[in-house]
TrEMBL record:
Domain EAL: 24-277
Organism the protein comes from: Georhizobium profundi
Full-protein positions shown: 687 to 969 of 969
Protein name per the record: EAL domain-containing protein
Domain of life: Bacteria
Amino acid sequence: HAKRQGGNRIEPFRPAFKTVGTDKLHLESDLRRALERKEMGLAYQPIVRLEDGEIVGFEALMRWEHPRRGAIPPAEFIPIAESSDLIFALGLFAIEQAASDLKDWQGDVGEVPVSVSVNISSAQLLRNDLCNDVRAALTKTGCKPHHLKLELTESVVMENPEQAALVLARMGEIGIGLALDDFGTGHSSLAYLTRFPFDTLKIDQSLVRDTSDKRAVLLRSIITMAKDLDMKVVAEGIEHDEDAGELFEMGCDFGQSFLFGPAMRAPAIKQLLRERFPLSKAS
Ligand code: C2E
Ligand code: MG
Ligand code: MG
Ligand code: MG
């Protein structure tokens, strides 16, 4: 204590944090209030069947509209959320919002045959309530388990493979789809990943857009292995029509990229689905 140390001596002011950290700290405290202030939302990017271009589902991507800074990309705020407890509230929000939007698109009677995939962080996977949260969201919305998918990256499952395998097995039993995200960026082999009940493999855009002469060999082997393991394959970040054709020839089932459509807010998706599936009673 300053006073006890010597009469009237005044302690020099020491900033509590280094300046490089203050921006992150501001963002973290802003993020803490963002949910209740309705600044967080989901945007949905179409996942299309390469064979005929039909939409089979959407990936839910979190969006933060900061009141002063405008849109802040998930690559910036998700790591901040992950390094604090905020990821649990944000993650739960994504699961519940995605399930409720999906139910809204499908309507009371008609069943529009699309699924929604939600990204899951490692802390969420390793905390015990993920299964309960997912189950509760399904019950609350009336959404069918096989219409909801979870996306996990290799690094997320590899952080604690034993625990991840347990949780994912339970998810699989409920009927939730499981996609291995950003495949090709991690270090694990596809064979090792068979211990997790993934039904879908998403090839990372860096591999899809690789310019080396090994690209085709890599893509073809990954797709062949995934198919042999009974997994569906989604290629991320396809930029050109020719690439879509080439991937389809290689056996890739689905694509998700700006070529097929950007991420859009729920009302736009609802409109899009009404046009695509006019016979269902989803309106
Ligand atoms: P991701 O799960 O691999 O999502 C795909 C990212 O690729 C999205 O970026 C999407 O906008 C972008 N993308 C799609 N098509 C193209 C394309 O043709 N070209 C290029 N260059 N990019 C394309 P976004 O929305 O910025 O999200 C980045 C990452 O943030 C996601 O990568 C995911 O890891 C994470 N993320 C987003 N939402 C959530 C969330 O709700 N929870 C968690 N835990 N992570 C999230
Ligand atoms: Mg993803
Ligand atoms: Mg991805
Ligand atoms: Mg990614």
